[in-house]
Amino acid sequence: MLINSLSVLSPNNWPFDREMLPQPVYLVGGSVRNALLKRKSDYLDLDFILLDQAVNIAKSIAKHYKAGFVVLDAERKIARVVFQGTTVDFAEIEGNSLEEDLWRRDFTINAIAYNPFNDEVIDLFNALKDLQDGMIRMVRSTNLRDDPLRLLRAYRQAAQLGFIISSETQTAIREFAPLLTNVAAERVQTELGYLLSHPQGMVWIEKAWKDGLLSSYFPTAAENWEIAKQVDIAAEELGKNWSQLKDELARGVRDTVKTSLLAIAKLAILVNSDPEKAEVELMGLKYSNAEIRSTIAVIKGLAKLSEIEISQMSVRQQYFFFQEIGKKFPALAVVALAKGISREEIDCLIQRYINPEDQVAHPTPL
User: Fold this and answer.
1) What's the CA dihedral at 297, 299, 303, 304 to 10 degrees?
2) Which of 31, 86, 279, 338 would be a feasible disulfide site paired with 230, CB 3.0-4.6 Å?
């Protein structure tokens, strides 16, 4: 049974004494869902809801154990305590009861509560069956309407969990899709980032676009869906042959920007091929200057490669090509492969790039 897997949430595994929590207290949300699905992680996430005093209790636990503490949402009374290897979130029940709180959640699989003191599982929506069926099903449509970011979150969780979205949930998403533009662009970008970082993310980005969620952000993306589906395949092919490129594709654009070069490659396919229009689209989603510059560099690099056969590029042309693309070359190589340029054709550029002594790709500064 799924319920047997909840032992991972046992108080024996908590980094603090259970006696520091008042009763009743419940574990909810992703921590319960992931435990039921037996999703293994080196890091333990615990999401508690309490009747009251959530922030004060979190602060008391953090002080007692000298752990990290931050208030995530003062208005909704949510706080986080960070231990080594464990993150613990504390929130107050929304509404007047546990049942009312669960009725306000997004999807049934995130609306299961677990009482770790008596092993009681509260499943109001037959969510255990949804977990077994691999189904993302809304609790009720008004919950999606009232927090439109949840519309996009359905696709993100479908990608991450390998689930499908129920037909009635899909219908509600299509109905409320225009409301997503009312959500702060930074929050939309965060959800999009999860999708861009997942191997199945582009499939679900396409579905979200066709369902009306992302078409206002990427108006011309329909031109490139077939290419988009090839990006992760191309990245895997590059990684198998050149481990250096695999490592660089996984790295952030900068130390302070976690968006990977592989995600930049995907963005370059989603946005307009005109650099100026692409910049406007990326600015609309509040991407950083580093992310925008990287994406634009890939777009311009692709335009260069479309103007001339790689085998016909002179050493001088290659030199200026590398001067312009710089460390974004792995992202460009992925998109080039996805667009149909053969590995053999681009091999000469790759060989230059991966050789740190190559004076064309990496000239010694004067």
Assistant:
1) 20
2) 338
